[in-house]
């Protein structure tokens, strides 16, 4: 698959010549793809050059109509968008509802706890985004929100490390009804972790990604720190119960984290993830890549290797 940005001479100009990683001009992480009106929008985090820990101050957006030529839409949201955030622009996901785009992201709150904020754009998928509510949507010192709108219109926000939590979002997408729910992590649901302890008894680590295909709900996740692989579980509803499916992508490459995002686009299915494959890359200089895949006849996910194609 040809799919890269090699260099930019202007904000929306791309030069395409290579394969994975998709973006070769900056370090990107935590991909969250969104299909909207015949185009793939790719929301990512942004690792600072040369950092020796996670130094992430803004998020980035890229888009493509063919999964080959990618446009760079710059940084329509950053830590500065959230007046109450102090650091750690980590792994989020965007969704469209009623013509607005909502981008859920984990950041560090000035209290010291990790929280989930919501950016909103009235101007399309590339923003700019503003703070939708001026405070965290949820805050329990856990990270990595994924958002999903079910066929009946009910929206769900899941997030968590080391736990897995969810709320039912209201139609306004910036508030929720009922209590925050915690998923009970069982070996049947998320696979047994080798050497697991009470706090992390299963392979589930972080980076949940919830979606539905046919009548099956899929929960993908980063598994078994450190180094992470990608795992998957399925359930009969957006609230589970979850049954562990297996390994989606084994531990590979020089990044000790990974992060899944799946879409269907123009008749093909794609897994977005990250690794450390760019020159100078590694655990704190990651890059987003993509693999095309096919589901099994029973809806199962394959085990995919990272490639440079
Ligand atoms: O990118 C910072 C953090 O690393 C993310 O929130 C996690 O999912 C892991 O990728």
TrEMBL record:
Keywords: Carbohydrate metabolism, Glycosidase, Hydrolase, Signal. The active site is at 49 (proton acceptor), 206 (proton donor). One of its GO terms (biological process) is carbohydrate metabolic process. Residues 1-18 form the signal peptide. The record marks 144 as: Important for catalytic activity, responsible for pKa modulation of the active site Glu and correct orientation of both the proton donor and substrate. Transmembrane segments: none annotated. It comes from the Eukaryota. One of its GO terms (molecular function) is carbohydrate binding. Belongs to the glycosyl hydrolase 43 family. This is Glycosyl hydrolase.
